[in-house]
Design brief:
The complex is a heterodimer of chains A (154) and B (447).
Chain A: H1 3-21, E1 26-27, E2 31-33, E3 37-39, E4 42-50, E5 52-60, H2 62-73, H3 82-105, E6 110-112, E7 116-119, E8 123-125, E9 132-139, E10 142-152
Antiparallel strand pairs in A: 1-9, 2-9, 3-8, 4-5, 4-6, 4-7, 5-10, 9-10
Chain B: H1 2-10, H2 13-23, E1 27-34, E2 37-42, E3 46-52, E4 65-71, E5 74-80, H3 81-84, E6 98-105, E7 108-114, E8 116-123, E9 143-149, E10 152-157, H4 159-163, H5 171-177, H6 205-218, H7 227-240, H8 251-258, H9 272-281, E11 289-295, H10 301-313, E12 318-325, H11 328-333, H12 346-349, E13 352-354, E14 359-361, H13 363-367, E15 369-373, E16 385-390, H14 399-412, E17 413-421, E18 432-435, E19 441-445
Parallel strand pairs in B: 2-10, 5-7, 11-12, 11-16, 12-15, 16-17
Antiparallel strand pairs in B: 1-2, 1-8, 3-6, 4-5, 6-7, 9-10, 13-14, 17-19, 18-19
Classes of the chains: A alpha+beta (154), B alpha/beta (447).
């Protein structure tokens, strides 16, 4: 993944999560991965198109998703209902949109697809050809992994 | 992930899964003990078990050969595994019987004496774990793996390796193990235990250690790519260090050993003559577009150097360089590198512009390079390229990974394309021809 793309994603993930959760968020060590990887239980996915092709996946487990949804809505959400799903989708949308805006300022043209959310147990994403950058974020509500796989259109 | 595990448990899937795993027994081994520890041997290698004694002594045989035995008409050699592995063995008196495993390795049968034969244990081969390099008693290469079964750990011996024919055993080590002048009494396929099995590149245990520690400390993989340098450096190293101080004990030693490995102009912009030598050796490109792949570009000095060198050689061409490195810190700096004009070779200054903090390369050079945070061991999404610039990068991969990367070189390089390796590296592949013997190791693809 191009070096220029990394920082916008890391920064906007950090800023947005800190702002919406009103809490101390820590960034973990970035790394690359290309093998299939398990999804923790709730995954929001945003597609990217334009100069590049790829996707951004926000991965967390169910309790974390519920806690984040609760914090963002200011009320206790106990089940993964429509409101909870919509909230996580919105978080994904905010982070990706802010990153893409930053990239736009740097002269890269990306378009976003509307986010989609997947929930379930024992899910796995596999795409052997695409190398993903993993940005682990540690919030008091739990761990969120942002999995960014973008490549230039050849 | 605890929540996910809990969910699974609720659904009642967990016990099923465990049962399924336990049911899949696909590896059976005969277990036995040596000096109180449990071992196993693949049942396919075991012909039978027996109790026997009164072996016929063979003079001048290796100490671990107890003699020969007549097994229903077949004469087989009897080997004492405890002596072979330097474990304490209780020497019974001549009339008592020893526990014997009769092994079959290829066409040979051997009798192996152990302390006690236990039973046949069926396990799932998926549960076999690779041996840990610090297993004390037995040389790690004779161990196939470790498996846990009903609370006991079994060390599975690799019978093929143990009794495989090996001819590069140095004579003096072999004879050291024999009593006397060593007529061949042991089976011809017998190999001495210990470090004698696999001689190093210069037939020296120290060289073998250095090879291992270079990889452990700096992930430097000695292979056909660089063993010419490695051997020469080892000779030099022996001259520099005291014989007791040859081994690399810490990273600083590894760095000192590797000091002469790096190519000219590493970590700085290429000097004008080096850049000229590289371009000179590269084949001429007829097309108006030049694609380059630069795996392991580090901080990007060599990428910029090559970009400028190609720009000077082909002013009209469209140059594109895909430069990648898996070191996030190094590669993050690359796109915005700032220089002071006094510190760069003169011919670069024309291609730089003055910015707020100093000089940077101009837009035309910068736009020709894509710096990517990427691990070459993952799939490499570069289009077919004319040149591959990969100095001192292949050597820092394990031998298996080197093979994989070379496979990608062959896939990505165009016909007539070239690979630039480090000064002390060579390309051990068919279908590539080295150009000249200048400071740049350039190989052109011929097939």
């Amino acid at each position: 993944m191009r070096v220029e793309y990394i920082n916008p994603f890391v920064e906007s993930a950090f800023n947005v999560m800190k702002e919406v959760l009103q809490a101390d968020v820590k960034r973990g060590e970035l790394y690359l991965k290309s093998t299939s990887m398990p999804v923790m239980g709730v995954a929001a996915i945003v597609g990217l198109a334009g100069d590049v092709e790829g996707r951004v996946l926000f991965d967390m487990d169910k309790p974390t998703a519920l806690k984040i949804a609760s914090a963002m809505n200011g009320e206790d959400i106990a089940t993964m209902d429509d409101l909870a799903k919509a909230t996580i989708t919105e978080l994904a949308n905010m982070i990706t949109a802010q990153a893409v805006t930053k990239l736009h300022e740097l002269g890269f043209r990306f378009d976003l697809t509307p986010p989609a959310i997947f929930t379930g147990d024992n899910m796995e994403v596999s795409n052997q050809d695409v190398e993903a950058l993993i940005v682990p974020m540690e919030a008091p509500q739990g761990k969120v992994e942002i999995n960014v796989a973008i490549r230039e259109r050849a | 992930m605890s929540a996910q595990a809990a969910d699974t448990l609720e659904a009642g899937k967990r016990p099923d899964e465990k049962k399924e795993r336990a049911d899949k027994i696909d590896f059976k081994m005969v277990t036995f003990s040596l000096a109180g520890k449990e071992y196993g041997i693949d049942i396919m290698n075991v012909k039978e078990i027996a109790n026997a004694g009164r072996f016929t002594y063979v003079p001048n045989a290796a100490p671990f050969v107890r003699g020969v035995y007549n097994l229903r008409g077949d004469i087989i050699s009897i080997i004492d595994l405890r002596t072979m592995f330097h474990l304490p063995a209780e020497r019974k008196d001549d009339d008592s019987l020893e526990s014997l495993l009769i092994l079959r390795v290829e066409d040979h049968a051997f009798g192996v004496i152990v302390d006690n034969i236990d039973k046949v244990v069926g396990v799932s081969s998926a549960g076999i774990q690779p041996p840990h390099p610090i297993f004390g008693d037995i040389n790690v290469k004779y161990i196939k793996g470790i498996i846990e079964n009903q609370g006991k750990l079994y060390i599975i011996l690799n019978v093929e390796k143990l009794f495989a024919p090996k001819d590069e055993v140095p004579e003096q080590e072999m004879s050291a193990l024999r009593r006397g002048p060593a007529p061949v009494a042991a089976p011809a396929t017998m190999v001495a235990p210990g470090p004698a099995g696999d001689s190093g590149p210069v037939g020296d245990v120290n060289a073998e250690f250095i090879r291992e520690t270079l990889f452990a400390f700096r992930r430097f993989g000695v292979s056909a790519v660089n063993d010419g340098w490695f051997k020469a450096r080892y000779t030099e190293w022996k001259g520099m260090r005291k014989p007791t101080d040859l081994q690399l004990r810490e990273q600083a030693d590894a760095d000192a050993y590797l000091e002469t490995f790096y190519s000219r102009c590493t970590g700085e912009l290429w000097s004008e003559d080096y850049a000229a030598a590289v371009v000179e050796a590269l084949p001429k490109v007829e097309s108006r577009s030049i694609n380059v792949w630069n795996p392991g570009c580090g901080k990007g000095y060599e990428t910029y150097s090559l970009a400028v060198a190609l720009r000077r050689a082909y002013p009209e061409a469209r140059i594109k360089i895909w430069a990648n490195d898996s070191d996030l810190l190094a590669i993050s700096m690359a796109p915005n590198m700032v220089f002071t004009p006094e510190n760069v070779p003169e011919h670069y200054v024309d291609h730089m512009v003055k910015g707020r903090n100093g000089y940077t390369f101009n837009q035309s050079i910068r736009e020709s390079i894509f710096f990517e945070f990427h691990d070459v061991m993952n799939s490499n999404p570069v289009p077919p390229v004319d040149f591959i610039l990969c100095r001192d990068t292949v050597s820092f991969l394990s031998a298996a990974d080197q093979g994989k990367l070379f496979g990608d070189f062959c896939e990505k390089a165009k016909q007539g394309g070239a690979v630039i390796l480090g000064t002390n590296e060579r390309l051990p592949l068919d279908g590539w021809r080295r150009v000249g013997d200048g400071p740049a190791a350039v190989y052109v693809r011929t097939a």
